[in-house]
Amino acid sequence: MIRKLVTVAILFFAVSLSAQEITSSPYSFFGIGLQKFKGTAENRAMGGLSIASDSIHMNLQNPAGYGALGLTTYTVGLSHTENTISSSNAEDDLSSTNIDYLAIGIPAGKLGFGLGIKPFTSVGYELESEDESKVSKFTGRGGLNTLFLATGYKINDNWRVGVEGSYNFGNIQNKNLSYQKGLQFGTREINRSDFSGFSVKFGVQFEKEIKNNLQITGSASYTPSSNLSSDNFRELATYSPISNTEVIADAEEIDVPNDEMKIPSEVRLGAGIGQKRKWFAGLEYQRLSSSEYSNRSFELNNVQYTDASTFRAGGYFIPDYNDITSYFKRIVYRAGVRYGENGLNVNGEDINEFGISFGVGLPAGRLLTNLNLGVEFGKRGTTNAGLIEENFMSFFVSLSLNDRWFQKRKFN
Predict the structure, then answer these.
(1) Strands (E), 289-410
(2) CA 20 to 30 Å from 325, out of 228, 270, 392, 399?
(3) C-alpha closest to that of 124 among 170, 88, 159
């Protein structure tokens, strides 16, 4: 078991060094970036539902779910997104590939523990504006990740509670290039912030069988607001825009006070109904107090931050979980839909997001190991008021490995 612990620790360290989320969304320019989905591929294939938990799948969105684990579970998720961004007079295709999460869940009687790393926000954009006399270019990259430690406790057959402590960290860099047409030199401004801070999440889950193996499920989680410390850097430079390169003539580092940014509070409430190892259908509501956000580097008079709300619906179906003669009857078929207000208003237009997702869970190997595949089709934003609309297609995959770490051994 010690060897397994060391291996897991090395993997977490390696992934934490390279887990910077990559995105290709112009809307990641605002706040501390685009909010990333923080659940597993299984959740994402059901519209992002975080309601149900079981003994062989991790629930990264509600720490109470760790109290349901029956086997030690390792999970890793990856995704690839194709994004078409459109304005009223132009269109471009972008893509990004990411390691989404790496986590391990360990059962210990009525307790369960979880450790892992998952995305928080992501920044990746390139914007340009031009009029008769001036050209401005904005680029950004970076984002935040979350390293978490969680525990869940099974109070009885109906109730589970849990708590998650997180260390949020990362950096964001924004660059603004601006020059007057016909002049040899322009100005360049670079702003970089290194973020770090702690947060906590509380969760509760309820399950009760009502009749004929029919089970109702309830779920709630709450994340209080917290602070991020920000170590800031700013550089101003004079440059010559020659052949799309930046030839620096003069540069000066500007003292910028270090400060704090607030991570808004979040509430999730959900309920569902189903039969264990057969089918499940649920609804969920999520509210993020994103009106507490502000933009880090640039004054934006045409932008307002509002509280964000998301509605989700989804579920799964298994034809026959115990049929050892038919592989296809043991496949888990998942589907879901989501619609949300992103908490951002630009030029008087609310930036909303819609997604519909499908997926399968494929049995693989022994001890209930499974390979999860999914796809999501979605839309973000609008072309009204000179804005940008994104139409994206995301492919995602996860591998969930199950093992027994603690076994009673018999000696003759």
Answers:
(1) 303-305, 308-317, 332-346, 349-363, 370-381, 389-403
(2) 399
(3) 170
Helices (H), 85-171: none
Buried b (16+ CB within 10 A) or exposed e, 122-144: bbbbeeeeeeeeeeebbbbbbbb
**Alpha-carbon span 69 to 103, nearest angstrom:** 13
Structure tokens at 274: 């189903």
- Report the residue count for the chain: 412
Do 195 and 261 contact (CB within 8 A), yes or no? yes
What is this structure's pTM? Answer: 0.87
Write down the pLDDT at residue 372: 96
Is there a domain that residue 79 lies in?
yes
> Among residues 401, 404, 405, 403, which one has the least CA distance to residue 75?
401
DSSP string, 146-212: EEEEEEEEE-SSSEEEEEEEEEEEEEEEEEEEEEETT-S-EEEEEEEEEEEEEEEEEEEEEEEEEET
Strand partners, 307: none
Give the single-character DSSP code of 40.
-
Say which DSSP state 322 is in.
T
Pairing of strands 303-305, 308-317: unpaired
**Residue range of the domain that includes 291:** 2-115+150-165+206-226+264-364+378-403
Most confident range (mean pLDDT) of 55-69, 86-100, 295-309 is 55-69
Q: How many domains does the chain have?
A: 1
Q: How far apart are CA 100 and CA 102, in angstroms?
A: 7
361 falls in which pLDDT band (50, 70, 90)? very high
Assess if residue 210 is contained within a domain: yes
Structure tokens given for 322? 């115990």
Q: Does residue 259 form part of some domain?
A: no
Across 16-71, the runs of DSSP E, i.e. the strands, are 34-35
Q: Is the CB of residue 34 less than 8 Å from the CB of residue 121?
A: yes
Query: Looking at the predicted structure, is the pLDDT value of residue 214 above 90?
Result: yes
What's the pLDDT at 391? 97
